[in-house]
Write a structure and sequence with these properties.
The protein contains 18 helices and 13 strands. It is α/β, with parallel strands linked by helices. Strand 2, helix 5 and strand 3 form a beta-alpha-beta unit. It is found in: Cytoplasm, Cytosol.
Length: 395
């Protein structure tokens, strides 16, 4: 077998690597990879898989491009904001190589469609950011007998692992038979993420996928950990083989009874809270006020004080004039001190980013106050920006 003539020039720099050669490039050309998630991890993974010459790529993502994505999701740009991420990513890949075969799926991966969507592909990449989909992908990979290259990243840290590889390769359930408590799982929006970190993990996923296809990978189960501020930044942990009691990869049939019969959302503690909506709930009578009420108080000349309960790093990004920063954890640990320090400040107005932490802070303060009037702002600073001051930054 041979390649089209122009591919010798396109892929020549990698074909001359020892252990790669023409056979390796032909394996890539014949391979098919499904990438679930075209975000911070999926974009760099797709970019390098496409550039390396993987013959067929599937992009599965039902989300649309937002301005906040562009800091890390490198296949998208200002012109594709509002477009499906899968379509935007495919458009960028075809600009690099118009001959790529790309299957675009703008539908959410569910227990009902996972097997059908993933069946045609040799390798599955988990580039998602939520627990239910991680368990679903792992179970589907086991059911289909395909390796799963999984990545995750938050803040300045990330990890990458290959599951269900070979006869003894563990699956995700082997390592994490029980999902963590819902309250312990944060998102990039809540915790933050440096774009370069997702780039590193996504590139490592692409690299590991290429190694598996070409046949130069180490089959030993390993978990790669990355910490941007660590010394050294990379660590590898050797994993045990399949867990004999795993209900997925070690069951008598080699898989769960049926992927479609599992409610992965409930298994992982229920749906993600909609913090934006919860922050807009009215709450108890007289306890929560609209941003307009706070504005009226500011204009009235009456004594009052604004306490901003966001972390200090967020307070440094933007703040209401005259407000004081007292992070939520400080209030919850010693609410009586906050009351004492502000005994003569007039009414207390508690604000946060979306109007959720302010409710917790206000409740703790009321429990320790007999006379001070304590209110928190519905919708927080996000609502202040949309209803009062459109020049107030949103992040």
């Amino acid at each position: 077998m041979s390649l089209p003539l122009h591919d010798y020039q396109r892929y020549g720099r990698q074909m001359i690597i020892d252990g790669f050669g023409l056979p390796g490039q032909l394996r890539l050309r014949a391979a098919s990879v499904a990438v679930v998630g075209a975000g911070g991890l999926g974009c760099p993974a797709l970019q390098y898989l496409g550039a390396a010459g993987v013959g067929r790529l599937a992009i599965i993502d039902h989300d649309r491009v937002e301005l906040s994505n562009l800091q890390r999701q490198i296949l998208h740009n200002e012109e594709t904001v509002g477009m499906y991420k899968a379509e935007s990513a495919a458009l960028a890949l075809r600009r690099v190589n118009a001959e790529l075969t790309i299957d675009v799926h703008t539908t959410a991966l569910t227990p009902e469609n996972a097997i059908a969507l993933l069946q045609p592909y040799d390798i599955i990449l988990d580039c998602t950011d939520n627990m239910p989909t991680r368990y679903l992908l792992s179970d589907a990979a086991v059911a289909l007998g395909k390796p799963l290259v999984s990545g995750a990243a938050q803040k300045l840290e990330g990890q990458m692992c290959v599951y269900n590889l070979g006869a003894q390769g563990p699956c995700y359930r082997c390592l994490y038979p029980v999902p963590p408590p819902r309250a312990a799982v944060g998102t990039c929006e809540e915790l933050g993420i440096l774009g370069a970190v997702t780039g590193i993990i996504g590139n490592m996923q692409a690299l590991e996928t290429i190694k598996i296809i070409v046949g130069v990978n180490d089959p030993t189960p390993m978990l790669l950990l990355f910490a941007a501020l660590g010394t050294p930044p990379f660590r590898s942990i050797k994993l045990r083989a399949r867990k004999p009691t795993c209900p997925a990869c070690s069951s008598p049939t080699g898989q769960l009874a049926s992927v479609t019969s599992t409610d992965y959302v409930q298994f992982c503690g229920g749906p993600n809270p909609n913090w934006l909506e919860q922050g807009l709930l009215p709450g108890g009578t007289g306890h929560r006020v609209l941003p307009k009420d706070l504005q009226d108080t500011i204009s009235s000349g009456k004594p009052f004080k604004i306490i901003d309960v966001r972390p200090s790093i967020e307070y440094g990004i933007c703040k209401l004039p005259g407000s004081e920063n007292v992070p939520l954890k400080n209030i919850l640990s010693c609410p009586e001190k906050i009351i004492s320090d502000n005994a003569n400040s007039g009414d207390l107005y508690i604000v946060c980013r979306l109007g959720n932490d302010s409710q917790l802070a206000a409740h703790a303060l009321r429990q320790n106050s007999s006379g001070t009037i304590i209110k928190d702002v519905i919708g927080g600073l996000r609502a202040w920006s949309s209803q009062i001051d459109p020049e107030f930054p949103i992040y």
